[in-house]
Design goal:
Layout lengths: L3 E2 L4 E2 L6 H5 L3 E2 L5 E2 L5 E2 L25 E2 L3 E5 L5 H8 L2 H4 L16 H16 L4 E7 L5 E10 L9 E8 L6 H19 L3 E5 L5 H9 L3 E2 L11 E5 L1
């Protein structure tokens, strides 16, 4: 058998026994296998990211998932991303839609060293199993356009089931519906299962006109009516 697969290829049901033989392909939904990182030929031996076995959960704080869309790659934040992300976090227009609630920080920085400390803190919270923060890579330009965070939490829940607190920070020129939708499409496809959450909660400010469209497009409902939160502008979406 001669197989050549690249990032984005999917192996369907006829290959479902390969996981048992090789142990290095990723089971996603509907018994499909998805090659995440490497080109391979003849044998699937170099997959290093997520090994998903049917019926077993993954640990995102042991192996951080990566997601990819047509235009973007969403991968774990690195310390060396500081320089490339600073244009986003020093952008006052972008900062209008950052979510610093309960963080003691508005995440708007004009001092790069202070922002470096922020990145180091984000990385430390991954090691503490608190939240995952990814960088968003624009595949066409090679630039980092912002970050995404998911924090699995019981903080606002009323039913004892974990929800994911979702933050999406984007440079102002990327604060557009097409970008938001492309990112949200891949997130809602994966993060419920990957983080073992039953809902996601997100702050969508009233003046964030592009983000407001997410509410109807993805069936978000007002969070105050659904969970233990008193803060304004929060919306929840169930799996």
């Amino acid at each position: 058998m001669n197989i050549k697969l690249d990032v984005g290829n999917t192996i369907y049901k006829s290959f479902q026994n390969m996981e048992k033989i090789n142990g290095n392909i990723c089971l996603i939904k509907e018994r499909k296998f998805y090659i995440m990182k490497y080109s391979v030929r003849n044998e699937l031996t170099k997959y290093e990211k997520i090994r998903r076995i049917e019926g077993k959960s993954m640990d995102v704080f042991t192996v951080c998932p990566e997601y990819e869309t047509e235009h973007f790659k969403i991968r774990k934040l690195k310390a060396e991303d500081t320089e490339r992300l600073f244009p986003c976090y020093s952008d006052p227009e972008a900062a209008r839609f950052f979510n610093g609630d309960c963080c003691g920080d508005d995440f708007y920085y004009t001092d790069k060293d202070k922002f470096r400390e922020c990145v180091e803190y984000w990385l430390s919270r991954y090691n503490a199993r608190d939240f995952v923060r990814w960088s968003i890579l624009d595949k066409r330009t090679g630039l980092l356009i912002g970050t995404i965070e998911v924090c699995p939490s019981l903080k606002y829940t009323v039913d004892g089931k974990q929800m994911g607190i979702l933050r999406v920070d984007l440079k102002s020129e990327h604060e557009r519906w097409g970008v938001l939708k492309e990112l949200m499409d891949v997130l809602v496809c994966h993060i419920y299962e990957d983080f073992e959450i039953t809902s996601i909660i997100m702050k969508i400010q009233k003046d964030a006109s592009e983000r407001q469209r997410l509410i109807t497009e993805y069936q978000f409902v007002t969070a105050k009516e659904e969970c233990n939160i008193s803060l304004e502008d929060y919306y929840i979406r169930y799996c």
